[in-house]
Automatic annotation (TrEMBL):
Source superkingdom: Bacteria
Name this polypeptide is given: Uncharacterized protein
Alphabetical keyword list: Membrane, Transmembrane, Transmembrane helix
Record field: transmembrane: 6-25, 46-67, 73-96
Length: 118
């Protein structure tokens, strides 16, 4: 039954690694670049790497030959940390992008013709 763990590793690597690398380098579709800053995309790429690490914990603990109690303890600690950490990074990057977009919409620009402080 170890084939399932190897399939898990192969499929999660095939999906998450290209996604994380594309986000971290900024090579994403135009609609994603429009909604996010380059820094926000990098943070989301790091979050995808964190989620990928969390995906690898269960099959690696099974394949490593750890005792069942030790494997459960490692899974119980590392998987929630990776899931909540990755989603927290995504949420933080999204909120930062939204707040920055809202602030830049409220501030007059040089060419807007508004008198600032006047």
């Amino acid at each position: 039954m170890l084939i399932f763990q190897w399939l898990w590793i192969a499929l999660s690597s095939a999906v998450m690694l290209p996604l994380a690398a594309a986000l971290a380098t900024g090579r994403v579709p135009r609609w994603m670049r429009r909604d996010s800053t380059p820094g926000g995309l990098k943070v989301k790429g790091i979050a995808a790497f964190v989620l990928y690490a969390g995906l690898l914990v269960p099959p690696v603990t099974t394949l490593s030959g750890m005792g069942p109690e030790a494997a459960e303890l490692v899974r119980m600690v590392l998987v929630p940390m990776a899931v909540f950490g990755g989603h927290g990074l995504i949420l933080g990057a999204t909120l930062c992008d939204r707040f920055n977009r809202r602030e830049s919409a409220n501030w007059p620009t040089v060419n807007s013709g508004c008198e600032v402080g006047g």
